[in-house]
Each structure stands twice: as structure tokens, then as C-alpha cells.
Design a protein that fits this description.
single chain, 228 residues, mainly alpha, Arc Repressor Mutant, subunit A, Tetracycline Repressor, domain 2, 2 domains, Tet_transcr_reg_TetR-rel_C_sf, transcription cis-regulatory region binding, HTH_TetR, DNA-binding, transcription regulation
């Protein structure tokens, strides 16, 4: 009995793996027959595991969210500086969602999948809130705006990963650099050095002893008061 369950789970996982690839490559035009053929199983076998298209999509949502949840947990976002947290969060999200990008093409997701997405958003939102609270992120932009811009950026980058124009590593590096270059707060101005202070003081002294109306560096004429 246990062996049959293991075999069944293996077949189911294999079908989902193929379905994710086919949907990512071809989009919503893919039929259940196309998926069965790509997976190398009969249509009857496919329908035995997934009674309809909605059931298959729901299973793919679960797989995608489980994969991303695992990656984010492994990333330990709350234990590293904010810049590193953004880098890890970006790579985990691109690696997971790139695999299941086709799911975003469907307007109506199962209600349960939407609920899981909201739960998954918690660790991501925590990164933005920590960045704002610590002063690492700029203060003139609300946290929710930063988050929206971040995920809009990721959406565009992931589409290039799907089309094999960027690798996951390249896309992650580009997205992280672009986001942080606009999101991080400007560093404070450096304190004045001893040299700059002395130079400033010297300039002030020279200005205070200058002859009123004289042109700096000009040689006094013979008839000027200083020549007598």
C-alpha cells in the first residue's frame, strides 16, 4: 500500500512538473490533452489525478507557493542586513515564480490559492517594513509603494527569464541592483576633516585682512597708500 502511494505521488509530481513547463512555454492555449501528451500519460490517467483543468491549476498554485515558501524560509531574511535580505528575497522569488510564471496569466485563481498568497506575503512585507523602520529605505516613499514598484520590477525580469533571455542569477542581480539604487536612503554627508576645517579658517582670515575694494592678487600701484 505504501509503495502504491509513493508511486502515485511520484506520477502526480511528474505531471505537475511537465504541466508547469508546458504552460510557461505556451501559455493558456495549452489543453489537458497537450499536457497528457507532454507528460507521456494517457488522458484518462491525467484526469484520474486531476478531474478538470481547475484542479490542475490549483495543484500548480499549491506547488508554486510551497516552493517559494521553502525558499524564503531557507533564506532567513530576518537574520541578515536589509541589502542582503532584498538580494535573497529577490533570488528566491525569481527562481520560484519563474518556474510557474504561466499561472499569472489566469485572471481567476482559486480562493484558497489567494489566501495562501496573502500568507506568503507576510515575510516579504516584513523586509520592506524593516527597511523603512531602520532608516535603510528612503522616507519620502510609503512602504506599500516601494513594495509595488519592487514586484512590478520582478514581473518584468521574470518574463525575461521565461523567454531564456536572462538566467535566474543574472535576473536576480539586475533586479536587486536596480531596486536598491532607488530604494535606499541617501548616505549622510561625511563630517568635515581637519584639513577642510583649517582651509576654511585660513580663507576666513585672509578675507578679513584684505583691503576693501582690492582685487585679490593685484599688485598695488605706485600711488597707492601701501606703496608709501
Amino acid at each position: 500500500m505504501t509503495r502504491n502511494i509513493i508511486l502515485r505521488d511520484h506520477v502526480r509530481a511528474g505531471i505537475l512538473d511537465v504541466a508547469a513547463t508546458v504552460l510557461a512555454e505556451r501559455g493558456t492555449s495549452v489543453s489537458m490533452t497537450d499536457i497528457a501528451q507532454a507528460a507521456g500519460v494517457a488522458r484518462a490517467t491525467l484526469y484520474r489525478y486531476f478531474p478538470n483543468r481547475d484542479a490542475l491549476l490549483y495543484a500548480l498554485y499549491e506547488a508554486a507557493l510551497s516552493d517559494l515558501t521553502r525558499r524564503l524560509n531557507d533564506a532567513r531574511l530576518d537574520s541578515v542586513p536589509i541589502e542582503e535580505a532584498v538580494a535573497r528575497m529577490t533570488r528566491a522569488t525569481i527562481a520560484a515564480t519563474g518556474r510557474y510564471r504561466a499561472l499569472g496569466l489566469f485572471e481567476k485563481a482559486p480562493r484558497e490559492a489567494r489566501r495562501m498568497e496573502r500568507q506568503l506575503a507576510a515575510p516579504l512585507r516584513a523586509v520592506f517594513e524593516r527597511g523603512a523602520a531602520s532608516g535603510a529605505f528612503r522616507r519620502d516613499m510609503p512602504v506599500h509603494t516601494l513594495a509595488e514598484l519592487y514586484f512590478s520590477l520582478l514581473e518584468g525580469v521574470v518574463s525575461r527569464v521565461i523567454r531564456h533571455r536572462l538566467s535566474v542569477e543574472e535576473a536576480s542581480a539586475y533586479a536587486t541592483t536596480l531596486f536598491l539604487s532607488g530604494a535606499l536612503a541617501a548616505p549622510p554627508a561625511p563630517p568635515p576633516t581637519a584639513t577642510s576645517t583649517a582651509t576654511s579658517a585660513g580663507s576666513t582670515t585672509a578675507s578679513s585682512t584684505a583691503v576693501p575694494g582690492a582685487v585679490p592678487g593685484a599688485v598695488p600701484s605706485a600711488g597707492s597708500p601701501s606703496s608709501g
